[in-house]
Design brief:
This protein is α/β, with parallel strands linked by helices. The protein has three domains: about 1-95, Rossmann fold (3-Layer(aba) Sandwich), CATH 3.40.50; about 105-300, UDP-N-acetylmuramoyl-L-alanine:D-glutamate ligase, CATH 3.40.1190.10; about 305-445, Mur ligase, C-terminal domain (Protein-Tyrosine Phosphatase, Chain A, Alpha-Beta Complex). The chain is about 35% helix and about 25% strand. It has 17 helices and 21 strands. The chain has helices at about 5-10, 20-30, 45, 80-90, 95-105, 120-130, 190, 195-205, 220, 270-285, 290-300, 325-340, 350-355, 360-365, 390-395, 405-410, 430-445; strands at about 10-15, 35-40, 55, 70, 90-95, 110-115, 135-145, 150-155, 160, 175-180, 210-215, 225-230, 235-245, 245-255, 255-265, 305-310, 315-320, 345, 370-375, 400-405, 420-425. Strands 8-7-9-6-10-11-12-13-14-15 form a ten-stranded mixed beta sheet, sandwiched between helices.
Length: about 450
Amino acid sequence: MADNILSHFGSFYFIGIGGVSMSALARFAVLSKKKVGGSDRDITSAAALKSYGIKIFPCGTRALEGYEVVVYTDAIPDCDPELRLARSLNKVVIPRVKFLAAVCKCFSRVTAVSGCHGKTTCTSMLASIYYAAGKRFSAHIGGNSLQFSNFCSFGNDYFITEACEYKKNFLSLRPDCAVVLNTDADHLECYGSESELYACYRKFAARADCAVVPYGGLSSDVPGAVSFGGDSRADFCCREFPCGRGLYSFELSAFAKSLGTINLNVPGRHNVSNALAAAAAASTEGIEFLYIKRGLEEFEGVERRMQLLGNLGGVRCVADYAHHPAEISAAIRTAEKITDGKLYVVFQPHTYSRTKNLFKQFVSALSDVRRLLIYRTYAAREYFDEEGCAFTLSRAIKKSRYGECPEDILKFISAAVDGDTVLFLGAGDIYFIARGLVNSAAENN
């Protein structure tokens, strides 16, 4: 039933509609001329959806009674009152990924981007390439692209989407082109082991008509896969050139033939890898280098990816979504290149389980930071676990401080001066806390 859900039903209710993925899917439902409503604990996060004709309700109402299908996110527990009500009323109840799978069936070609990190950036880069090429496409983005927000619709020939590995969600999708950016360990509370996680990435890649994967490992384990990487033996490879202030250019080669040079306008060496994957995926879908180059060079970036928030007492404030040790290391390296003075880092762990499962890696990624504050954990869907809490992580890193409230952040950066940079890291509410501090400082000046 879920595969044909968009043709079978005319009304959809989203529990957790303010989420970045859910709000994008709700907008697609509206474009499909469906009656759409939803609820969220944070009404303000969903308020913008009203302009699309979507009705927003507070949690705990019986508003879903007026809708045929109820869609919920993984963040919603089974004990949620609205979810229990929907089931008691025998509504059609499906998880977010099943709705996404149904959306995919509305398009001629689907490209799905997976990986522990880089998904939102690569998906946004692909959207920029397809836009430059004048393709009829739509994109479902797991963050806010500065060009396209979290959703855009220019036609139904191609669909570009993120494929989240949490709870093996990406295995519900059957894309024509499957992109795997990396297979770093994460969500081990769902998989149990790194080998099981890797096996699922391999399964995801193998089920697509075309797979774009990192050179080595998966490129050997997935027959017919197109590989990308810095190694000259990769199908799509590059020679990179630092341009200063954290920016890079690179010469792109495909199957041992040089195609030309691409000049990125977003900082970070890791973005060369994201761009290389996007170029490989676009090329396999028949897009010419001219448009790949134009799309990548016109790519403006993504909210919360090395985003300049403003100044706090003359000190530059930058926010990044990094919440995995590998992402943290990359973000810190980039921040060091773009700051003229000292670097202050405020990191908020995202979930107790991730911190606990990757504890040694977090310590390793953060131990060399000279000015570090570990902010209270953003629990998301989880309950307190002392072994994976921010205070425990802070105690394991000798030079770090622990912060419980915004005032602790202000005390931490009180010694910063003009030319210094504060880097706010994390996937939780640290971004909004940082924005609040910056906006408050601006209002008081």
